[in-house]
DUF2993 domain-containing protein
Amino acid sequence: MRALRVLLVIVVILGGLFVAADRIAVNFAEDKAADKIRSSQGLDRTPEVSITGFPFLTQVAGRSLDQVDARIDGLNATAEGHTLRIQELSAQFHDVKLTSDYTSIESAASATGEARISYADLTAASGKNVKVSYGGEKNGKSQVKISPNLPNLPMLNSLEVTGTVSIVNGDTVRLRADTLPALCSQLSACRDQVRGQTDHEWKLNRLPGGLKLDKVVSTREGISISASGKDVKLPG
């Protein structure tokens, strides 16, 4: 019985040491992955990376990780001289393959994600004194309210139009005014000026390769964009 107790104590100690070593290794790997993503994407902040599954060391031995979660803040998309800030991009990568030298993540069999953009950031990206706010949904489409700034058109000084936010080509966020006032739509100068403030496209060209935007939903806090992909190439 004494020998059995000693053996159990040894097993517990060794098990504890293995768990501790495994957690140290996974924390180190998460930090290295976060640093590589930051440098490869030119981010101002280091993203949060979490590697799930246990034990980590046996996953590394097989050059395959069950799941890697990443949260990236501060991504930007620039178009027409205006920068659209992505408040947060969170993604889950499944069946992740490591490179042959074990130093980098190579690809993921599949991935899902979500990006959030606030109305304040949409407003800032739409031009000087243009305001974008929540507009609800109509016919299954996410809508926003757009208030353009038209100081040289006093009859339209308090203009507010309804716009639709959509995804184009899996990597572009499009904002379009649905309709314009009859008077403005008949005058090309007025129409062009209003649409110059209400209609925009921002291409998110720094998404992990293979991850595509597929749906946008407007909420009271901002817009939420879902993404998914197969055989996704990860940065870093």
